[in-house]
Amino acid sequence: MEVRAVAGPLAATFADVRAAAGRIAGVVHRTPVLTSQALDAACGGARVFLKCESFQRTGAFKFRGAYNRLSQFTPEERTGGVITYSSGNHAQGIALAARELGIPATIVMPTDAIAPKVAATKGYGAGIEWIDRQTENGYETAARIARERGSTFVPPFDDAGIIAGQGTAALELCEQAGEPLDVFLAPLGGGGLLSGCALAMHGTSPRTVLYGVETETANDWVLSFAAGHPVRIPPPMTVADGIKTEVPGDLTFPIIYSLVTDVRTVSDDEVLHAMRLVLFRLKILIEPTAAVPLALLLSGRLGDLAGQRVGVLISGGNVDPALLAEVAGQTEASPAADSGSR
Amino acid sequence: MEVRAVAGPLAATFADVRAAAGRIAGVVHRTPVLTSQALDAACGGARVFLKCESFQRTGAFKFRGAYNRLSQFTPEERTGGVITYSSGNHAQGIALAARELGIPATIVMPTDAIAPKVAATKGYGAGIEWIDRQTENGYETAARIARERGSTFVPPFDDAGIIAGQGTAALELCEQAGEPLDVFLAPLGGGGLLSGCALAMHGTSPRTVLYGVETETANDWVLSFAAGHPVRIPPPMTVADGIKTEVPGDLTFPIIYSLVTDVRTVSDDEVLHAMRLVLFRLKILIEPTAAVPLALLLSGRLGDLAGQRVGVLISGGNVDPALLAEVAGQTEASPAADSGSR
């Protein structure tokens, strides 16, 4: 069932997600789904299933879309290589997927990218082209280099192959959770992850209520849902660095607008609280962006969820050590875990 | 095969470990075994299998032995209740096992126990009796209360039921790893965990080389192995708070001395490095004690392990937030993960 009508066909379909699942099998990890009695209690008695892409190769879901997209390159495209612009998880996803497929990769990175992310991207064998964020536009630089070298530019989210690849995470979650989910939540930045997951849920479990979650300051999707079309906001400040996009994608917006029940927001403080709880109770490290949907669940603002089966997409686990030191230092969390896996 | 001869029968057998596995099934979590290409590379090409008791209920393996022991209480013992002395993971294991079995529990705790551990123990419904470590002996206080109330004292490691219960972790690891392991490592404090695991490995995979690992300052087992009998050391200072015991147990020493290949040591710095690597690369939180065997593996001092199948018992994930803040703040670790689970 469509929640809202949109004009024209969507950029990707459930069949594309299933085809992506076949392409990535054996290369992309089938990440574990964790459950925790302590977490269930903290979420008002919901039965929570965490799909932990923090355990994915490169530490985030981005490897799924990158591998799905690059594995469909033509022989000419493979020779010309791939290029993208990213300071974060997409850079690592593209770099590792390119290495696995023997495709030359160039990543345009800002000079202020943090050292461990640069090191990881280099470690996967990608070439780096530096830009100064103050004076250059990374996307324009990448597009120019692509033209000069005959490389193919792969954007971080607004691409049918990327969208279908990210959706495989939700497809796996549905299989791993067994019985259908009542509710599904994912973080919402550019919308690549949620649009793919929405297609997967729509095809697998059409009655599941779907939520996208962003932080209060990064509320471009809330405004866009209200307007019925993509609305641009100024560059937002938020601890959830993975969802700092300014406007929904041209391809991701129609999918999410038509299939996702609603978009909600949480505060940065709620995000850090959720990250801490997961760290000290479930013993796993997740990045702030991954804690965004969990923060909404913990807030109680979704109403009574007692006994409901709730799937949560944990998007990644790449955390700046300085932020982690701050999060750990502030906490009063109990060290007792009560978690399992399936 | 016995490595060294000891006089008299051992306190527990492989059959006891198997019986324990039947008793704890469905209550104690079958924790996941994690693998990581990044970790394998850091360990000289070994194929490392991490048995993650950090995901166990209460956040540590201690729940296994506690539940196995308490589930064998007679009706009279159940009525009289259980008592123990612990400031750490054993307290939580006993408290939760007692709650699950409907047995009243009293935990003698030192007044300087850290707040989250006290909160967790209380949260499982146990009564707390406080002692001042400077002026009172916790074991004597617990024994006195046991006599006064007709309660049963359950020690943290030198007990056949505790030993057999802890051994179930290694039994599961052997099943989950598939092919036999070439090497197995576990942290070594009182010896409850390693003695049970040694019985399990001896019965399941008798050719596996077994190592116990302690920190340089907490080297009572190294000295005891050299002497051929338990040797007492002064209270050690080490970051690995779970292995601060001063002397091997009367029951655990003969088992470990006869079945374990060797005991080795690592430095506190090596322990913190291993903890950091696991946190930022594998995205899991493990406590310093759990990082002790991994630190040895990472040191390269076990020689060439390329292609060898190495099982590592990750004992728990209960970390003092202040220590974690320090560990995170010092690190230069890369955020890229490359891990999976089975």
Features:
homodimer, 342 residues, alpha/beta, 7-stranded mixed beta sheet, disordered C terminus
Question: What's the short version?
Answer:
Chain A is α/β, with parallel strands linked by helices and 342 residues long. Chain A has helices at residues 14-24, 37-42, 62-70, 75-80, 89-101, 115-123, 138-149, 160-177, 192-204, 220-227, 252-259, 268-282, 288-299, 321-330, and strands at residues 33-36, 47-52, 82-85, 105-110, 127-131, 152-153, 183-187, 209-215, 262-266, 309-314, 339-341. The interface between A and B is large, with 49 and 48 residues.
Describe the fold and architecture.
The structure is a homodimer of 342-residue chains. With 342 residues, chain A is of the alpha/beta class. Chain A is 44% helix and 15% strand. Chain A has 14 helices and eleven strands. Chain A has helices spanning 14-24, 37-42, 62-70, 75-80, 89-101, 115-123, 138-149, 160-177, 192-204, 220-227, 252-259, 268-282, 288-299, 321-330; strands at 33-36, 47-52, 82-85, 105-110, 127-131, 152-153, 183-187, 209-215, 262-266, 309-314, 339-341. In chain A, the strands form two sheets. A seven-stranded mixed sheet of chain A has the order 9-8-7-10-2-1-11. In chain A, β4, α6 and β5 (127-131) form a beta-alpha-beta unit. In chain A, α1 (14-24) packs across α3 (62-70), α5 (89-101) runs parallel beside α6 (115-123) and α9 packs across α11. Chain A is globular and about 55 Å long. Chains A and B meet through α6, α12, α14 and β11 of A and α6, α12, α14 and β11 of B.
